[in-house]
Amino acid sequence: MANLIVTGGAGFIGANFVHHWRKVAPQDNIIVLDVLTYAGNPANIAGLDGVELVEGDICDTALVSRLMDDHAIDTVVHFAAESHVDRSITGPDAFVTTNVVGTHSLLKAAKIAWLDKGSGRPHRFHHVSTDEVYGSLEMDDPAFSETTPYSPNSPYSASKAGSDHLVRAYHHTYGLETTTSNCSNNYGPYQFPEKLIPLFTLNALSGRNLPIYGDGLNVRDWLHVEDHCVGIELILRKGRIGETYNVGGGQELPNIEVVREICRGVDAAFAENPALAATFPDAPAARGGSSVDLMTYVEDRKGHDRRYAIDESKIRGELGYEPARDFPQGFAETLRWYLSNENWWRPLVERAKIAR
């Protein structure tokens, strides 16, 4: 039986990991540490047995140390991060505080609990990062590998790069048993509706514009969050200490094609279930129209990387990782979840006015 702290476990990827871990290791105890900012939602993990939510800041080293001791923690899975690129451009301070200072706070607490006190307890500190630390690729460049030099282009990716380096340093300097994963763009249930897929899905349901940056040809590798959680599980169980593993979905798509798939999926859902028209009367599909008509082009954002692509051959070869979904399948699952969970996302949209 393991005792875990999952930071950011009330957020999107963290909550999905908590759900996943309850299924694969129901005997383990999980402490979710989350400061519950706008993207943290206790409802994401409500009702899960063996999971305790602690509202607190990862920058509070004393709190983290107390949790480590009180619950005999042997595993930290670190998701907590500020992650929205647009927000990092207008307010970078929070990204440096959470992503760099917060990660260092966790590392200090882990070092105290697992090394300085001499417990000799087997342990693992797993750090969840992003492919954005590698910078941008040209269309004919090889995909990012674990040896690609870091070249972050936004305050968000720079802050994540800094946290990656700190994790590496604590392993090589102090012997802390760490692993790091750099993932591609995630999507799936519980994603806060400011990111492309949930935002555009909900906009299409509400008849609001689908604003596409620049020419829409920026390319991303898309990873369903459940496949990501499987990758993290493999790293925790079989990954080599001190190593980094890239986790991708193998679905490299331009943004414009992602938006078209969203439009196709929403329109098909209305065709298959006409009753949706009564629930979402403002959707073009409710009136026999097409969601594509909502697509608009807007000025490109600052520092918008052209292409990300993940070379996941290391985790495939060493750990047997293989994503289970292509993008059409993964998005179809995601759309069904959002259509079935209006009570989850509607208050978020109305409170934050995100999709307006």
Automatic annotation (TrEMBL):
It catalyses: dTDP-alpha-D-glucose = dTDP-4-dehydro-6-deoxy-alpha-D-glucose + H2O. Transmembrane segments: none annotated. The keyword NAD applies. Keywords: Lyase, NAD. Residues 5-333 form the NAD(P)-binding domain. Its cofactor is NAD(+). The keyword Transcription does not apply. One of its GO terms (molecular function) is dTDP-glucose 4,6-dehydratase activity. Its EC number is 4.2.1.46. GO terms for biological process: nucleotide-sugar metabolic process. Belongs to the NAD(P)-dependent epimerase/dehydratase family. dTDP-glucose dehydratase subfamily. This is dTDP-glucose 4,6-dehydratase. It comes from Sphingobium cupriresistens LL01.
